[in-house]
Protein 1
Amino acid sequence: MKKVIIIFFLLVTGYFVFQQYSKTLSNEDFDDEEDEYTYEEALPAMPASCSDLAMHYENAYYGTRSGDVSHSQKVFAFRKFKSCLREEGFSDEEIDATIDEADQNAKKKLKQDGYLK
């Protein structure tokens, strides 16, 4: 009888863990990201020291949606990219616009590959 209770407990726990995991990858999480940030002036050129981090962030953004990268990895890439831009002297508005541009590039790739409609 103890074994049956333990197996039942493991099944219920596994079910709730699966539900939590599937919620993190649902489309509802990405609907909030549809708002576009508008920056009125021309963006400054991407510094050479930040261009690799920009590519890593775009790949992490893409990978999060496609299921290849975890959300924490995306956040880590975002923070590294943002801190690089800040160290290069970008203002907060320029940082937001540059990050939004990277997001839009990743969304274009996601649409091309069929992950977004």
Protein 2
Amino acid sequence: MNNYFEQIMEFKGADELKTLVRSWDVLSDNISKRSFDAPIVLPDLFVYTQQGYGNTKLLNLLSEYLDSKENLMSFYGDVKFFEFELEYCEPDREFSELYRLIDSIQAAAGFRCEFKGIIRINLDDWVGHHKEEHFLDFLRFLQSNTAYWMIFFTLSNETETEETKAMESIISMFLRIEKITLHMPSDEELVGFASVGFAKYGLELDEGAKKLLEESISVLRKNQYFSGLRTISHLCSDIVYSVFSESNDVGNVITAEMLKDFSADSDYIKRTLVKIKETVTLGF
């Protein structure tokens, strides 16, 4: 079984995407058994998600999976995917964002003559502006290159609105799109994500520690600065640092007592509520 496929299937809150990827697996198998006079082009994706869901990791897995199948999509350039924030431009101003996108595409191609791969484009700034000429020019540009790229449109919202549905309708006039929603994992699932990270250091949570961590995560995710897996990674890195710097006799099990400084009402959580949004190291 394809390792990238298996990793995608492990993603939490991505049931609709998993269904789509399974259909791609069937498609790949059918293509391998037949000869076609014309290519089968995969649809672009219109994705409701949230900041911090883990979109970059998911895009990496998707691009590697599609590349490994060999008959679903071609990749060419210095990278298999890149991410782009399409900032809003007033109607009476030059549409500089289109030129910036073109520059990003050329950078992704590198020394090669073209880029073939996945482009994630965040459309948050354009909700409510989808009928403006700049946005239509943007869609016309993508339409003329749809054979080379899969566009992964994202909106930082798990819920449809009248404006986002209208945007989806406009885009569908130019491109073939498949709509999916990526749901942020539950508190319990985020503790599971943390457990995987701790395992890299030979550590595991006992039941008391899991309960404490779940309560802390519940507090964190209610705050406007919560950024999903990035926030949890930050928390876990600090826990690992604390565990290995407080004692010379560290066992393999993390207890609730060891996590008391990271409890829901701790000073750490109170500080974290107003400072998160940075990239984490330490293996998470």
